Amino acid sequence: MKGSCLLWSHLVWIVVIVGLVGCLTFKSKSNHATALFPINVGGMWGYSDKSGHIAIKPSFIDAKAFSEGLAAVKSGPGQVFGTVVVDGLWGYIDESGAIVIDCGFLQAGSFSNGYSRVIPFAVTMSGKLSQIEEVIDRNGHVVDADGRNIIKVPVGVSSQ
Questions:
Q1: Which residues in the chain land under pLDDT 70?
Q2: Which are the contacts of 141, defined by CB distance < 8 A and separation ≥ 6?
Q3: In a domain? residue 74
């Protein structure tokens, strides 16, 4: 009986260690070569490297993990458009912290295979926020299901 308890104890430790290593490996892979991680300092978001040094100054309202070399960040003060209040808009930065896709989205996802889902900021004729999801490429161009660029109505305008 004592031997089987000891065996189970060892198995539990092996499972815990393998699980922790798997989590660390997953994090590393999800952030690939840059290994920059979102951090919150004084209520603002930025990015630090694995050693904890700040790589991108905390200056965003919110921030997501890097994927395919880009990270979604929320920037700007709250704004009022008629009866609509927006608490900032999402855009994308590169690993140097430069904004490469302007902040013009109510929601922004992570890039996968060169594309990301977004909901652009647009107020409808009835004065409500549009909730139409679009897919963009790494240049911020709206694309169709085949990856072809499509003509887009200017940001802030919607026919709904």
A1: 1-34, 151-160
A2: 149, 152
A3: yes
pLDDT digits (tens, 9 = 90+) for 115-134: 999 999 888 788 788 888 99
Residue recorded with tokens 């690993």: 95
CA distance 107 to 149: 20
Cα(148)–Cα(69) distance, rounded to whole angstroms? 22
Inside any domain, residue 68: yes
* Cα atoms in the Cβ-side hemisphere of radius 13 Å centred on 125: 2
Q: What is the pTM of this model?
A: 0.70
35 burial type by CB count under 10 A (0-12 exposed, 13-18 middle, 19+ buried): middle
Contact, 119 vs 132, CB < 8 A?
A: yes
Instruction: Classify residue 43: in a domain, yes or no.
Output: no
Those residues whose C-beta lies under 8 Å from the C-beta of residue 113, and which sit 6 or more positions away, are: none
